[in-house]
Design brief:
Blueprint (H helix, E strand, L loop, with lengths): L11 E4 L3 H12 L5 E4 L8 H4 L31 H14 L6 E2 L4 E7 L2 E6 L4 E4 L1 E4 L21 E4 L13 E5 L3 H10 L5 E5 L6 E3 L7 H9 L1 H23 L5 H17 L3 H6 L12 E3 L2 H5 L4 E4 L3 E5 L2 E4 L4 E3 L2 E4 L13 E3 L6 H4 L18 E3 L12 H20 L5 E4 L1 H14 L27 H9 L6 E4 L1
Parallel strand pairs: 1-2, 1-7, 2-3, 4-18, 7-19, 8-17, 9-10, 9-17, 10-13, 11-12
Antiparallel strand pairs: 4-5, 5-6, 14-15, 15-16, 20-21
Helix pairs in contact: 1-11, 5-6, 6-7
The protein binds NADP nicotinamide-adenine-dinucleotide phosphate.
């Protein structure tokens, strides 16, 4: 492994070859860096779109927004792209920008330890590497959370987590159960109800569902996008306004008129589209809309009213060989069970061991809650940067836009090293403390704090997501306030 250190061309290790890792390679090259490598634990790029292959997987952010700004895709076949189409997009971009040769697949980073001004990395294949800069592009909703369901292993049928879909298991003519009602389970429901013999959705908490219109782009529209780039630009501006004004800025202001409009739209969706009053009440949440991550679906209510479908609201008692036994004593016999119970949103780069100055362990630093200055830098972890790290605007905006801003910001920090102004740079303790205190105070105004349980909340019930507006994030990302950083050497 290369270990050359050079302020003019520092060695950069990128962890993860998903959306953010691919982006980082492209942007590093553009900025003139040559000495970098990506370690990817899987055998393929794509991150979340490689991992999530469940039926119905799609992105509920409009496709033309869920696209790198520098690589528009006139070919998106629909307004909301499928997971497979998004995976193909990333593969094509990686090919076009010659990213593949710098990715080392099947190589997990086990640890990063800062010693004598450099990061020492231990890799899963037993090898080692040394880096001046580490950029963790390891994803947010990445570590499956398999709910602790008593008797799960007694189940004689097939079961798997939604992010570990076993495509060898036939579904046609089978009795399929899905546990959970998050965005994932809702998409699975719409995709599967009419393909299986019996579909049971086990709901612990009802969800607010925002109606959305999805449709294919016609060949004429796609040709127009391809021949006139300004058409995509105009669409992006329009979509951006819609997402930012109506969703992203609304969720951080629980009492705003925009939030009231979301609540109204969800309520009307429920009232108008669920015909059976008993089912309607079962589907009616008892907390405010968007307190949990909003579900966007054009057809969930229709799907759950399909003759094959049953919404089970009795709590699960345990699993047994034949299926799920609910607390009312009923046995729900199943052939296949999908555990769509979400992700460990507090893990980030862990279980990799990360040790900063003086052996300071990230696990210890994050023992209460993961945090980072502006979501990307941690005090005493010099030249270690995160994309879509803790406390970023996850869930509100297109994560691609966020990562583009963050890479631009990190490159400006790296420019300090390159210019010889310092050898080590990381957020100062004071700036990070101020940022975190302000973030926690502000998060009380967000809809996520209005009394529901969700993956947004940390163990103290404080939302971990960016609690300010999009404009504020954009402004912060324009240029680092260098006084907020400790520069050494
Ligand atoms: P999730 O939103 O965390 O939902 C997990 C579900 O499992 C919840 O309904 C939860 O119920 C249920 N659950 C957890 N433990 C349980 C237990 N012991 N017994 C019964 N039910 C249990 O997970 P997700 O649906 O995978 O989605 C995670 C996030 O991924 C989303 O919020 C979204 O940000 C992202 N995502 C995005 C898209 C997209 O289109 N962009 C698609 C899919 C996912 P409670 O509500 O009662 O806790």
């Amino acid at each position: 492994m290369t270990t050359a250190t050079n302020a003019r061309d520092p060695r950069v290790v990128i962890i993860g070859a998903g959306m953010a890792g691919i982006l980082t390679v492209i942007k590093l090259r553009e900025a003139g860096y040559e000495n970098f490598i990506v370690y990817e634990k899987a055998d393929r790029l794509g991150g979340t779109w490689r991992e999530n292959t469940y039926p119905g997987v799609a992105c509920d952010v409009p496709a033309h927004l869920y696209t790198y700004s520098f690589e528009p895709n006139p070919g998106w076949t629909r307004m909301f792209a499928s997971g497979q189409e998004i995976q193909e997009y990333f593969e094509n971009v990686a090919k076009k920008y010659d990213v593949l040769p710098v990715i080392r697949f099947n190589t997990e980073v086990k640890s990063c330890v800062f010693e004598n001004g450099q990061w020492q990395l231990a890799l899963g294949n037993g090898r080692h590497d040394t880096a001046d800069v580490v950029i963790a592009a390891s994803g947010v909703l990445h570590h499956p959370h398999v709910a602790d369901l008593p008797g799960l292993n007694e189940f004689a049928g097939k079961w798997f987590h939604s992010a570990r879909w076993d495509h060898s298991v036939p579904l046609e003519g089978k009795r399929v159960g899905v546990i959970g009602t998050g965005s994932t389970a809702i998409q699975i429901t719409s995709a599967l109800v009419n393909k299986v013999a019996k579909f049971e959705l086990f709901q612990r908490t009802a969800q607010w569902v925002m109606p959305m219109v999805d449709r294919e782009y016609s060949p004429e529209e796609r040709t127009a996008f391809a021949s006139d780039a300004s058409k995509i630009d105009a669409l992006r501006v329009e979509l951006n306004h819609m997402m930012i004004d109506r969703i992203a800025n609304a969720v951080v202001a629980a009492d705003s008129p925009e939030m009231a409009a979301i609540e109204q739209a969800c309520l009307e969706n429920l009232e108008k589209n669920v015909r059976d009053p008993v089912l309607r009440e079962k589907l009616r949440p008892n907390y405010r809309a968007a307190c949990k991550r909003l579900i966007f679906s054009p057809d969930f209510y229709e799907a759950i009213q399909h003759p094959n479908a049953e919404l089970v609201t009795d709590a699960i008692d345990h699993l047994e060989a034949k299926g799920v036994r609910t607390k009312d004593g009923r046995l729900h016999e199943l052939d296949v069970l999908v555990v769509a119970t979400g992700f460990r949103a507090d893990r980030f780069i862990r279980p990799a061991v990360v040790k900063g100055r003086g052996g300071l362990d990230l696990d210890h630093v994050w023992k209460d809650r993961p945090f980072a200055y502006l979501s990307l830098s941690i005090p005493e972890f010099p030249n270690f940067f995160m994309l879509n790290g803790p406390n970023g605007p996850v869930g509100n905006f297109s994560l691609i836009q966020i990562a583009e801003f963050q890479v631009g910001y990190i490159l400006q920090l790296m420019a300090e090293i390159r210019a010889g102004h310092c050898r080590e740079i990381s957020a100062s303790r004071e700036a990070t403390k101020r940022f975190d205190e302000a973030r926690i105070a502000e998060s009380k105004k967000a809809i996520w704090s209005t009394g529901c349980k969700s993956w947004y909340l940390d163990q103290f019930g404080v939302p971990a997501s960016w609690p300010w507006t999009y404009a504020r994030f954009e402004a912060e990302m324009q240029a680092p306030k260098l006084e907020a950083f400790e520069r050494v050497g």
